[in-house]
Amino acid sequence: EFRRFSLERSKPGKFEEFYGLLQHVHKIPNVDVLVGYTDIHGDLLPINNDDNYHKAVSTANPLLRIFIQRKEDADYSAFGTDTMTRKKNVLANVLRPDNHKKKPHIVISMPQDFRPVSSIIDVDILPETHRRVRLYKYGTDKPLGFYIRDGSSVRVTPHGLEKVPGIFISRLVPGGLAQGTGLLAVNDEVLEVNGIEVSGKSLDQVTDMMIANSRNLIITVRPANQRNNVVRNSRTSGSSGQSTESSLPSSTPNILGSLLQGEEESDEEDIIIEDSGEPQQIPKAAPTSESIESLSQIELLHESTQNGFLPSSEMNLNHSAGSISMEYEEPEPGPKSLEEDGTIITL
Amino acid sequence: QTVEHGFPHQPSALGYSPFLRLMAIGTRSGAIKVYGAPGVEFMGLHEENNTVMQIHFIPDQCQLVTLLDDNSLHLWSLKQHGGASELLEEHRFTLKGPPGSPPSATQVTAVLPHSSREVLYLGTESGNIFVVELPSFRVLEDRTITPEAVLQRIPEDNCNRRSCELVEALREHPKNPDQILIGYSRGLIVLWDLQNNKATHHFLGSQQLENLYWQRDGSKFISCHYDGSYTQWPVSSDNRQPEPLENTVPYGPFPCKAISKIYWQTTKNGLPYIIFQGGMPRASYGDRHSISVIHGSQQTAFDFTSRVIDFFIIFSSDPAAEFDDPSALVVLAEEELVVIDLKSAGWPAVHPPYLASLHCSAITCSHHVSNIPLKLWERIISAGSKQNIHYSSMPWPIDGGTNIAPDPPQRDLLLTGHEDGTVRFWDASGVCLHLLYKLSTVRVFLTDADPNDNMNTLGEDEWPPLRKVGTFDPYSDDPRLGIQKIYLCKYSGYLAVAGTAGQVLVMELNDEDAEHVVDHAEADLLQDQEGYRWKGHEKLKTRDGPVRFEAGFQPFVLVQCQPPAVVTSLALHSEWKLVAFGTSHGFGLFDHQQKRLVFVKCTLHPSDQLALEGPLSRVKSLKKSLRQSFRRIRRSRVSSRKRRGGSGNASEVQEANAKFDQDALQEMELAPVQRKIEARSAEDSFTGFVRTLYFADTFLRDSSRHCPSLWAGTNGGTVYAFCLRVPPAERRMDEPVRAEQAKEIQLMHRAPVVGILVLDGRSTPLPEPLEVAHDLSKSPDMQGSHQLLVVSEEQFKVFTLPKVSSKLKLKLTALEGCRVRKVTVASFGSCKADDYSENDLAVLTNLGDIQIISLPFLKLQIRYPCIRKEDVSGIASCVFTKYGQGFYLISPSEFERFSLSTKWLVEPRCIVDMPEVTSNNHVHNKSGTENAARKSSPGDCGEDERKSGRLMEHALLNDEKVLKEIQSTLEGGR
């Protein structure tokens, strides 16, 4: 089915609306589809969120060619670089998916089907000069593969420019995870490890922290090469970026959404072998009904919060409550805080 | 931090106050420590951290003056504050010459605190003697004694300006405070009249002067010289330039070393004690550190194990006494304090109650046992007293001050293991760390060293009559003998010690000497590992047949690990009669009742070549080779010493050793400092290294039955749990102990497991073996569910038992970047409420911080900085007690004690009062005028008047009634 319709280029709307429009236009309201478009290079690229939808609309010249496939018989291989130029008739491929059996080629999956190895996170809350990189060590056999060293960096302080000691990446091991991501480079200054600032810590301390977090390592760096920074165009994020720059070296640890999200899945489960049986993951103990214990546990969690660390269970609570805040409210001292904690746990 | 135990590192000066009966020691790092009666001690630190060169007590005052190597003088006072005395620095002062003068003009070489307590005489390198007022340190310029003034009345052909270079000694006339004796380095000695400001006598010595000493009556003095001679000079009013009475080279006729200090002590029987340092024949005994005592026909040259810093004689300080009657010789050597009883026949040594040389052989490990039952305590003391029979029974002669600290609340033992295979038992209950008993494991083994080889045995007619004194002996015959782990059960008296070559000895306390065979077993920890070659040291050879053991702890079982790697963990269960031990290859369990190996478990990863070859063989190879080469040097030195009957110079070797170490260190530092960031993996080296072993009676398999269990934690984050079946007591000898592996936990962060603990149903740590049987602990709660606490270097984790599920954790390293080095359960009592106490974890991190973490909720309670993070050996040496105190080495010879508990605090608390002079001053103050008059014109007071006045005072104060009266009026006045 071919359809042609118009969109207002300046106000494309949301992807959800567009998706609904497509279903409406084709009269397939209950069919899950994959949406793709060809960009100016002739690549077939997916449209599945607001960002790439907007990008797609902005590249229309003046027509935007959209391809729609049923999700169950979608050919993921159709997406990717050079897809249009490589195959003269991408349409035929799209429309007749059994065609590719004759010409096997590299299968490229949708992003959600990949296991991530690294990501840049918290772009919206970090200053543009900083980059927060997450290395997903779990599940891969690749070594992290980098070294750090002592060094000095220049900081802006109320007393003017000051030279302060800092920690820098000194070497990337070829073939290692760090090098493979391309997100870290030699001479990048390490500012934080898993949300904890490294300033004032020795090289050995930072080493130990990184190794202790090696299964889910989140490093905030100031890249030595500042030309590849993520450029934000929205004014609000720009200004917030500036404000965070000044507030970043604060003493209160930042509890960041993405740190929290990752915590649970990455939190390693120890393994037990009972009576020489099969190795099994050690489960979490079921929360006890004893009120004293759970209260004390919460008390403990709060204590750790002040140390800049949230255990996974509380993160979920926070997450579901939708109240991930940069500044954590300090519980009031005294028995009252226990009550307040109690309400948190009911959430 | 409460008190320092042991011997000060690098002592550099010694002072003594016969009036206060206090001794002061200064160190090269600027510390000053004052000691009196046991428990009386003070410490001060010069801000400059410069070497203390000299210490002088101000006569009849609670004050002392120190001279540092930066030429600064410091006045310290012992002041009472809040019911106890404190040592405080009051003033500091540096002598300044006229502008443009060379530094030597004011370089202080000799210090004389005058008996008037008002001035200090400072002899300098330039020959000038400056007079400074106390306590203000104001220079009284008009009273300076210049070389010109001194030379005025000396015949010119005998002297020139150079004779008065460098003042070597200043001594006040014992009877006439207006006369001082000035000794110049080149040999000229002058008796100076302070009132008339002129020299009254000249003594023309021909030899370079080292020191001077007045005889008690002031009629003669002794000078000692660089060439090893001493000279007696008469002082009489008729001859202004007397000839020497006697000039002797005691160890002549061949060239001798200098006599650097001399005492001449008179006695009732007329035979004086002549005591001097040095003077040995230069060629054959020049490297000895000796002090000779001559009394009539008796002569002994005490031969010290290290360089003599200084010495003093304790003699009658009563000014009315006619004779000196010396009672003790106190010698500060570089590595130990030696006190010789001069009153008893044979001049035996006195056992010092403090300042013990902890490092007489290097400390390799420590173990603390709190609250020793009285019975065991007495048995250890009695075993120790049999070892100490050669000591004098004289009470400790340095007995100034009063210890007002409360009695220690309990009897505590600190056990130190040493490189030479000995274990020393220290009374660690109070301020004075005191050696109770020394245990040697050497007898069990055949070593290179011949036990009968005693370098000390010298024939009767040997000359010089050297006698070795002191215990410092840092040279181990065989490094494999070194003690690595100690475990003492205070209830049963069983002791297990384990060493460098995989040896594990189980001992029992026996009050009598005994001769018996030590049962011997071998534990092959590699079992079926193929194709491996151990490149480390060989196992120790054992002595065949029965061995004689002295009273005390006597070994009855020896287990030797194969390969003979260093034992890295040890646990003893005295109730089950089991001992567990672990090395870098695995661990084993031995039944010391049936003397049977129960099982061994290899923890070695097959690919771990490093551990296969030997512990840290590659890493340590440099250090090892250095060490070995020095050991060779030492051996050759020792043997050459034996050959020529001479001696080796230990300090030289040490210096060279230190230099080599430093060079090696520098070499390493040249490499760029970068750290690899990599997750730990199962293939890492030394993952099989057994770090901790733990016995527990808990629910391992099901929640209905508890059973004995053994837990082991490795460097690779693995925890093994073995279920044990120990036969009941009546069939203990008939049925074997059985073990079966029940659980294996792998921590995914793979950090070394440093502690394992089981908490009972009340979340209280399980009691020690036999603790409940002795009614010293509640029985553990077996109703509620038990929990397992695993402490790795990075995290604390609580798991449920018997089904292992994770309950709680505290990630230390991920948050703070510090790692756990030591962890223990400590009981903290409340100092307010007697009945309240709680158990917490005391944790020492690699940054030297101490953290208290609550149980069972793993909540950080408090954190203290304790040890410098650079002080790796300090951190490694730390031991905690069960009641929140701890010890760590601040130098090879000193433990610092610290307390985390408000309740259990051991620190010095003492008072030094000046009974005589305090009341003296008060008396004078009451009368007022006399004191004032004396102050305004110190010279006016006639000698006789003062002397008689003092005698009077003394006579009065000797009368107890009068003393009490004075005291009561004083107290009434307050």
TrEMBL record, chain A:
One of its GO terms (biological process) is establishment or maintenance of cell polarity. Residues 1-71 form the PB1 domain. Residues 132-225 form the PDZ domain. It holds the Pfam family PB1. One of its GO terms (cellular component) is apical plasma membrane. It is found in: Cell junction, Tight junction; Cell membrane; Cytoplasm. PROSITE patterns: PB1, PDZ. InterPro entries: PAR6_homolog, PB1-like, PB1_dom, PB1_Par6, PDZ, PDZ_sf. Keywords: Cell cycle, Cell division, Cell junction, Cell membrane, Cytoplasm, Membrane, Tight junction. Residues 234-257 have a biased composition (Low complexity). It comes from the Eukaryota. Residues 228-257, 305-347 are annotated as: Disordered. CDD domains: PB1_Par6, PDZ_Par6-like. SMART domains: PB1, PDZ. Residues 305-323 have a biased composition (Polar residues). Belongs to the PAR6 family. This is PAR6B protein.
UniProtKB/TrEMBL annotation, chain B:
It is found in: Cytoplasm. GO terms for biological process: cell division; cortical actin cytoskeleton organization; establishment of spindle orientation; exocytosis; Golgi to plasma membrane transport; regulation of establishment or maintenance of cell polarity; regulation of Notch signaling pathway. WD repeats lie at residues 45-79, 409-427. The gene is Llgl2. Keywords: Cell cycle, Cell division, Cytoplasm, Exocytosis, Phosphoprotein, Repeat, WD repeat. This is LLGL scribble cell polarity complex component 2. Interacts with GPSM2/LGN, PRKCI/aPKC and PARD6B/Par-6. The complex is enhanced during mitosis. Interacts with DCAF1. It comes from the Eukaryota. Part of a complex with GPSM2/LGN, PRKCI/aPKC and PARD6B/Par-6, which may ensure the correct organization and orientation of bipolar spindles for normal cell division. This complex plays roles in the initial phase of the establishment of epithelial cell polarity.
